[in-house]
């Protein structure tokens, strides 16, 4: 058994792991990066980028179908499924290649290939013939799709998002379980590309939304494009030949049966810590078997082990994974000198149409009686009507005690841009009045944001002094 000693061992060469390696290397003499699979991040290979390629194709078809409202007569677009998927795969491979090239620039001696697992808190077995003794360890092993037991037996009729981007052609029909971020993005894109889609959820969830009014509008809009039951009553899921058969109760409590070519399981992701022999590290674990950690230092308890990115299941987003990698790598290299790192304003975007965005505090996180709400329905917003995208709702929240902006839940066209503006304002600690007193061009969608903020400011002024913070 070959043995090496290092200052820091980083497990996982994804977005968080790469940042952790570079961060640690600034402070430590010997840092190694361990990867058991192929190089190329989750985002590039099966996440952000290939999904946006599919969405871009769907948007092109959708815009062609909607040209008539502008007086433009075009024939029904013909979707060439094989050509669509060829472009998705080609561009996906390009993104993966670029991510792989970045990883391969790391000195070969610092890149270890093999499955890592803990022998003890500071000792890792990599593959069958290497033992790594590390002063500290960063766990950055990412996550994988979670498949529910009820889908067992579907064989190759069951797919997750990882599988879709390797399709050679588009199928005739797909049933989607899970109207979360992945389910909504891929489900709407497939529907617009001519695939028959039906979507089932549990508990009434629609993406990450918690504001009842915004969620209700989003649900109605998606239901106008494809059948969506966010609180479904599915009786059974089974395979019959090459079909997936779903039996469910409809809104009238009638038992129905539908057949689909594939079932897309978009029922969440699970962190890849269950294959690390994590129990040997002697860490405190939560009820899901994940290490208990501090979200500002990424340290697991008071140990020399740190956990970053999707592996900790806190904020499974690329920009958060990158930030966490930097913090975890620095603290691992400087252990036992551990310091909290800067965490940015929470920001998430769902690339549906309209887009969904969450900024700062979600409605469900706010303490009742301490905040006011402003809103704007985009059905009458000037720029939205010009573009023919006049649908959506934005709600913004501000604190009575000091007038500061707290957060927003958005379901509007081009929400990605307004979400960034709001995140920057929240991070700078601006008041709602200060946000209103900024330049707004005409006509732009951001004028709708100003309208919502003006309503919020009015309500803050009416309620100030009446509600205790």
From TrEMBL:
SUPFAM superfamilies: FAD/NAD(P)-binding domain (SSF51905), FAD/NAD-linked reductases, dimerisation (C-terminal) domain (SSF55424)
Chain residues that bind FAD: 52, 141-143, 310
Tree of life domain: Bacteria
Chain positions recorded as NAD(+) binding sites: 178-185, 268
Residues in Pyridine nucleotide-disulphide oxidoreductase dimerisation domain copies: 348-452
Annotated Gene3D superfamilies: 3.30.390.30, FAD/NAD(P)-binding domain
Essential cofactor(s): FAD
UniProtKB keywords: FAD, Flavoprotein, NAD, Nucleotide-binding
A GO molecular function held by the record: flavin adenine dinucleotide binding
Disulfide bonds: 43-48
Similarity comment: family membership: Belongs to the class-I pyridine nucleotide-disulfide oxidoreductase family.
Cited PANTHER family: MERCURIC REDUCTASE (PTHR43014), PYRIDINE NUCLEOTIDE-DISULFIDE OXIDOREDUCTASE RCLA-RELATED (PTHR43014:SF4)
Protein name in UniProt: Pyridine nucleotide-disulfide oxidoreductase dimerization region
Protein's organism: Alkalilimnicola ehrlichii (strain ATCC BAA-1101 / DSM 17681 / MLHE-1)
């Amino acid at each position: 058994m070959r043995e090496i000693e290092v200052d820091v061992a980083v497990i996982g060469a994804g977005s968080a792991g790469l940042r952790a390696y570079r961060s640690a290397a600034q402070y430590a003499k010997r840092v190694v990066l361990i990867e058991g699979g192929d190089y190329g991040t989750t985002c590039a290979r099966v996440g952000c980028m290939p999904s946006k390629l599919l969405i871009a194709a769907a948007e092109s078809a959708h815009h062609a179908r909607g040209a008539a409202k502008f007086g433009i007569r075009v024939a029904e677009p013909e979707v060439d499924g094989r050509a669509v998927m060829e472009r998705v795969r080609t561009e996906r491979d390009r993104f993966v290649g670029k991510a792989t090239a970045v990883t391969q620039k790391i000195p070969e001696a610092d890149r270890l290939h093999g499955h890592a697992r803990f022998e003890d808190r500071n000792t890792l077995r990599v593959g069958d013939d290497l033992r790594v003794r590390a002063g500290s360890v960063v766990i950055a092993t990412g996550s994988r799709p979670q498949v529910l037991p009820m889908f067992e037996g579907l064989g190759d009729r069951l797919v997750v998002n990882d599988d879709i981007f390797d399709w050679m052609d588009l199928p005739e029909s797909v049933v989607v379980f899970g109207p979360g971020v992945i389910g909504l993005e891929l489900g709407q894109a497939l529907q617009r590309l001519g695939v028959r889609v039906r979507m089932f959820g549990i508990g009434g969830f629609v993406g990450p939304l918690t504001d009842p009014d915004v969620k209700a509008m989003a649900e109605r809009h998606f239901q106008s494009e494809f059948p969506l039951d966010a609180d479904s009553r599915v009786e059974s899921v089974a395979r019959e030949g090459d079909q997936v058969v779903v039996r469910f109760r409809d809104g009238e409590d009638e038992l129905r049966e539908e057949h689909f070519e594939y079932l897309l399981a978009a029922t969440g992701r699970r962190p890849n810590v269950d294959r690390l022999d994590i129990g040997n590290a002697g860490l405190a674990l939560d009820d899901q078997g994940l290490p208990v950690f501090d979200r500002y230092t990424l340290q697991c308890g008071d140990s020399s082990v740190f956990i970053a990115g999707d592996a900790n299941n806190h904020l499974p987003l690329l920009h958060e994974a990158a930030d966490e990698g930097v913090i975890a790598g620095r603290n691992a290299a400087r252990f036992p000198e551990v310091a909290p790192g800067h965490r940015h304003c929470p920001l998430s975007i769902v690339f549906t149409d309209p887009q969904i965005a969450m900024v700062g505090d979600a409605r469900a996180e706010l303490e009742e009686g301490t905040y006011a709400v402003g809103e704007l329905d985009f059905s009458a917003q000037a720029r939205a009507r010009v573009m023919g995208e006049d649908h959506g709702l934005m709600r913004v929240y501000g604190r009575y005690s000091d007038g500061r902006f707290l957060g927003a839940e958005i379901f509007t066209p081009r929400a990605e841009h307004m979400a960034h503006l709001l995140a920057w304002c929240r991070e700078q600690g601006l008041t709602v009045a200060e946000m209103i007193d900024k330049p707004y061009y005409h006509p732009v969608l951001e004028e709708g944001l100003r309208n919502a903020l003006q309503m919020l400011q009015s309500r803050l002024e009416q309620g100030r002094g009446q509600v205790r913070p």
